[in-house]
Amino acid sequence: MNIKSKLTLAIGILVAMIVLLVVLSVVNLQILTATEPDSPAAGPGLQRALLWIYVVGAACICIGIGMWLRLPASIDNPIKELTNAIQEIANHNYEKRLELNSSEEFSEVSKNFNRMAKRLEDYHASTLSDMMASKKYMETIINSINEPIIGLNNDMEILFINDEALNVINLKREEVIKHSAQDISLRNDLLRRLIRELVEIPGEPVKDKEKEKKEPLKIYADNKESFFQVKYMSISQPGKDGVTMEKKGHVIMLKNITEFKELDSAKTTFISTISHELKTPISAIMMSLQLLEDQRIGALNEEQEDLANSIKENSERLLNITGELLNMTQVESGKLQLKPKITKPIELIEYAIKANRVQAEKFNIQIEVEYPDDKISRLFADSEKIAWVLTNLLSNAIRYSPENGRVIIGARQTDDGFIEMFVRDFGKGIDPRYHKSIFDHYFRVPGTKVQGSGLGLSISRDFVEAHNGTLTVDSKLGEGSTFVMRLKA
Ligand code: ADP
Question: 3-state class of 54 per DSSP?
Fold first, then answer.
């Protein structure tokens, strides 16, 4: 029965009862007016009429109370149930169903509600399964990459990690996913080394990050030693305004460079062996040349002398190059051993000048020395290596200066306790674009006509850095260059 019929029926019954009550009252009144109220004939009639009035009145009151109690509840309860069910749906409980059978209207409402809940449940299940499928797909892609990858959010929580990375850091997936990388790093050295780039770790010594970034990471996993290059990527996505980018986290990628490292070390060994092997025949050539120059075995004519000089010059160059290559292989293979001793800077300067005298005379370059009159601290350094660096810088200054030019070599003490040794020329200078690259192996400024290997400055920097010093350049095109080596006094 619907609510309207229920209400109509209840009100109809009440109206009928009231009508009956009125009729009975009228009958009672007629009896009273037709007969003498105290007469015996009126007594039973009156009593019957009064009894009916009481009965009907009581029934009216009962029905009224019944309606007062039941009617609001029959509407209120289903509405409450409906409100609760809507709240459940809002809380993503899509399994909620309604059973309202108190009236036709409410059973219709519950039927429609249940239909809506069912649709929402199906939709949710399908989007959830779609999302799960996409997540699985992404995980499969990440896992199929055979280089270790770790994804972190801004709070340094590990969001994803592939099997390769788990293998390398030697942890299980459930130990890392959704866990703080900082917490894990307290008991995992490798992870600590990896995230050091992204966060400051309390208690960690401050390291030269630039230098560390260049060095490959050595990892011992699967019973073998591997080398990895670490790459950091910052993940950003468009913010709410769709324009500004919001940082969402980081991705750490490790590239396995073991193969290249092995090839590189094979190359270093090869260069080192060849350079070593070449030194003996070159020395023999130079000795033979010295004999040729000796008048005792016969005088050379002018043409022969020119040829002998050219052979000598080229042999010296070859010897220089093999020396440079040997030095480079020493640094690359990590076999560079310093033999430090107390040295006066002026002695190193004098050595460099002596080594370059012939070349300077050849191009008529004037070498000036700038050395303070007051006492300058001594150096505790491998004098052979530092002298080699100064010789190389001076040789460059001479080679890259115009004929009849001048170069300055000198040393000074700084207030903060360093010795700076410098070589200055007034040659063509170096384009600022190349100030960094000239210190790379084999790099030569494009268009450089003077012969060279591109190794001198890179070896020089390695030698100076091995002494915890710095080698820098200050140069302007057309004005010349100044190379400064800074070492702790
Ligand atoms: P090399 O001189 O044997 O080529 P270096 O490593 O000593 O190798 O120098 C690298 C490059 O830097 C040189 O090829 C040259 O182009 C540039 N360079 C070095 N020193 C000077 C200088 N004093 N003036 C101008 N250019 C220089």
Answer: helix
